[in-house]
Amino acid sequence: MSSQQQKLKVFADRNDYSEKSLFKPLRDQGYDVQTYEGSSFMWILNNSESKREYVRQAKGASAIVVIPCIGKIDREIMESIGPSLKVIATHSVGFDHIDLEAAR
């Protein structure tokens, strides 16, 4: 990424792996990698208050990295993050926690 390009934001649902090398290649390429800052990431999207906080922190992200135990990534969340959202990556076996129709 050139210095003239805007830094793309990557938002991850967990902060316990942010210090490891998982995101180092993205940071090395100039991506702005941010992680959810909350007391717990478990089922955060099932509670309206923590869901609003998740969206507030993820707003403007180009990509989000999610796991099933945060809850469902639905149309409301995708639209709330904004039109910059282009990638939803999951580090799981399945993808039932992502509304695929809304993601199209």
Molecular structure report:
With 104 residues, the chain is α/β, with parallel strands linked by helices. It is 26% helix and 15% strand. A four-stranded parallel sheet has the order 2-1-3-4, with no helix packed on it.
What is the CATH homologous superfamily assignment?
A: NAD(P)-binding Rossmann-like Domain
Going by helix content, strand content and strand pairing, the class is alpha/beta
Distance between the termini: 26 Å
How much β-strand is present in the residues?
15-25%
Q: What is the name of the CATH class?
A: Alpha Beta
CA-based gyration radius = 13 Å
Number of extended strands: 4
Low-confidence stretches: none
Total DSSP helices: 4
Biggest sheet architecture: 4 strands, parallel
* Order of adjacent strands in the largest pleated sheet: 2-1-3-4
Amount of helix: 25-40%
**Could you state the order of secondary-structure elements as H and E?**
EHEHEHEH
Mean of the pLDDT scores? 86
> What best-fitting shape do the alpha-carbon axes yield?
globular
Number of domain modules:
1
CATH architecture: 3-Layer(aba) Sandwich
Based on the model shown, name its key terms.
alpha/beta, 104 residues, Rossmann fold
What's the short version?
With 104 residues, the chain is an alpha/beta fold.
